[in-house]
Design goal:
30-stranded mixed beta sheet; elongated; 11 helices
């Protein structure tokens, strides 16, 4: 009996549980969704930070776990910062959605039918948007849609994006026959623009099947054409694209892609691009910037609030002037006209405003295109950036003869950037350095080791300390010039009267300078040939690149007419001048200094005047050139 009673209780209990479960399922299937209207409004207010109104929220069918929800007169006001009016208005919305997802707040609609949509999207110059909130907030991967149907009728949209310089408005439509369509007109960066977008019909599309789309922007500053697929309907977090961009500058393209690009000459670029969440992969990029040509691939990853770039760039040819727009080039030309030509580049190196970006860029430039010609023919290296510290490593610059190797570092973590570099010249020649092969030639080695502060390379050199050395041995020099170096006026005149063109051996050429506060002083500066020797003193001021050197020479042998005044090297690094030094030059008459110096020399040779004391340190035969050079190049 007890066992029977026990079995009865179990059956009754099971029936009660089953009945309760069935009742619960019935309640869920018949849940009056209108009760959720207030909760829906509160959730939308929390998301958009603005008043929300839903006039009606109800279900069309009476019993279903995937009910058709009907909403009327939905209105979301603009946040206060975005101006007056409404962010979104919908006259009527019908959607099918799982009742379970509706109650949990993780709404995943199966269909959307919208009539009378009017949406006004706004983003300010800082990147704050009325659809996604404040700028630079942690990224959140959106949920892919699993729609079987999308219908949008009688709908319009507008976009005022101050950061992208884009202000457009137009129509938005979708149906199961023609798919999703967007057409708009307005302005891009102040110029008339049109935007178009198309998506494949959504009816019965799989949640994870590739969803094809196209998009374009047409304007005078920039044309972009995109063709690609999303990994699911409107899943912009996971997509693949083929892109082509033609425009007046990379800066115009940056308004759209927001990668921190700069002003350049005209661009024509195309590539294959993938997005996976917050990460971007540029699988292939090729095209032109001005007359420069390039190919590249890169990944841009977002991790812990920082952007990490890994890129490889190959440029068959590159003109650095292409990496500046017309305004930048005009500014550089105006500055050159104001201060004169300079050898040290005015490249900006201040990275203090660089955002949270790190990375590595490996680059190879096969051929450098430089207006007016240059000894530099190619360049390759590896750029790394880590918390505003930039390093150029494994650098190799190919010269017309020889190469330059070394490293460069820019530390922008302080208020004023610190620039430091060590570059070595190998296998080059004096002809390449001086550019006067008829005057002097020979194998050349060099060292540039400088540390300074400044916002440009030129400013850093103007305040820099270190050393700059160029050395040559076993070369040759014009015989007349060698006589002048040794202040052997008679020998120089005789050589020229004999027709000239002869050369003498250059035993040692050492142009070594210590740098302190942007001022170079010889350490030492000497030339030794078969017929003469000379030593320099004075200074070169890198702030302005002005030269003030005096070269005192001695002849090897007994000159029959000795030049009593030393040589003076002045002017600037790009335009040096050579003259005969001495008080005689102060006459101010053209050629007067040379004529009077020759007169002084003749008078000295005839014993008619007493020579002034000469500065000390005249070199004799330089027998230790190798040791001096090795010491200077350390």
């Amino acid at each position: 009996m007890k066992a029977l009673l026990r079995r009865r209780k179990v059956r009754i209990g099971g029936a009660i549980i089953a009945g309760t479960f069935i009742a619960l399922l019935f309640l869920l299937a018949a849940f009056p969704v209108g009760l959720l209207r207030g909760l829906a409004e509160d959730r939308l207010v929390e998301k958009f930070g603005a008043p929300v109104e839903i006039a009606e929220l109800s279900r069309v069918d009476s019993l279903s776990f995937t009910p058709e929800i009907h909403a009327q007169s939905i209105r979301i006001a603009q946040p206060a910062w975005a101006g007056k009016g409404d962010l979104l208005k919908i006259a009527e919305l019908r959607t099918k959605v799982s009742i379970f997802s509706l109650l949990t707040g993780n709404v995943a609609p199966r269909s959307l039918h919208i009539t009378g949509l009017d949406v006004a999207l706004v983003r300010d110059a800082k990147g704050n948007s009325n659809w996604d909130g404040r700028a630079n907030k942690p990224g959140k991967r959106s949920q892919p849609l699993n729609l079987v149907s999308l219908t949008i009728r009688d709908s319009r949209f507008s976009l005022r994006d101050a950061k992208r310089q884009l202000d457009i408005s137009g129509s938005l439509a979708s149906d199961d026959r023609a798919g999703l369509r967007l057409s708009a007109a307005g302005t891009f960066n102040g110029a008339p623009a049109r935007a178009e977008a198309r998506g494949r019909p959504i009816a019965n599309a799989s949640e994870t099947a590739p969803w094809p789309f196209t998009a374009s922007l047409s304007s005078a500053p920039l044309d972009i054409d995109v063709k690609g697929t999303m990994a699911g309907i409107l899943n912009t977090d996971d997509l693949k694209m083929k892109m082509r961009a033609r425009g007046t500058s990379l800066k115009e393209l940056d308004h759209i892609i927001e990668a921190g690009l700069f002003g350049t000459q005209d661009i024509d670029l195309q590539g294959d691009v993938r997005r996976a969440g917050e990460d971007w992969h540029i699988d292939r990029l090729s095209g032109s910037i001005g007359r420069s040509r390039l190919q590249a691939r890169a990944t841009v990853l977002k991790r812990d609030g920082r952007t990490r770039i890994d890129a490889t760039i190959r440029a068959p040819q590159l003109d650095f002037d292409d990496l500046a727009d017309d305004a930048g080039l005009a500014e550089a030309r105006a500055k050159e006209a104001r201060i004169g030509k300079r050898v040290i580049p005015d490249t900006r190196i201040d990275l203090s405003r660089m955002g949270p970006t790190d990375g590595i860029i490996r680059f190879t430039i096969d051929r450098l295109l430089i207006e007016g010609g240059s000894a530099f023919k190619s360049l390759k290296g590896e750029l790394t950036l880590d918390h505003r510290v930039l390093k150029l490593q494994k650098a190799v610059a190919g010269l017309e003869q020889g190469r330059v190797t070394g490293w460069v570092k820019v530390d922008s973590t302080k208020s004023m950037p610190i620039f430091s570099t060590e570059l070595r010249v190998e296998g080059s020649s004096l002809e390449t350095l001086i550019g006067a092969p008829d005057m002097i030639g020979g194998p050349l080695r060099g060292l540039v080791r400088i540390t300074g502060r400044g916002r440009t390379i030129r400013d850093a050199f103007a305040s820099g300390s270190g050393k700059i050395v160029f050395a040559s041995a076993k070369g040759s020099m014009d015989r007349a010039a060698a006589f002048v170096l040794g202040q052997n006026l008679g020998g120089a005149i005789g050589e020229k009267l004999g027709g000239g063109g002869n050369r003498v051996s250059l035993n040692c050429g050492l142009f070594a300078f210590d740098a302190q506060g942007g001022v170079l002083t010889p350490s030492p500066l000497l030339l030794d040939t078969a017929v003469s020797s000379g030593r320099g003193r004075g200074r070169i001021n890198l702030d302005g690149e002005t030269i003030a050197l005096t070269i005192t020479g001695a002849a090897k042998g007994d000159p029959f007419l000795k030049l009593v005044d030393p040589l003076s090297v002045g002017g600037t690094l790009p335009v040096p001048t050579i003259a005969i030094d001495g008080a005689a030059q102060k006459s101010g008459k053209p050629g007067g200094g040379i004529v009077r110096s020759i007169g002084r020399s003749i008078g000295s040779a005839l014993g008619l005047r007493k020579d002034e004391p000469k500065p000390g340190g005249l070199p004799g035969n330089v027998s230790n050139c190798g040791a001096l050079t090795a010491s200077a190049l350390r």
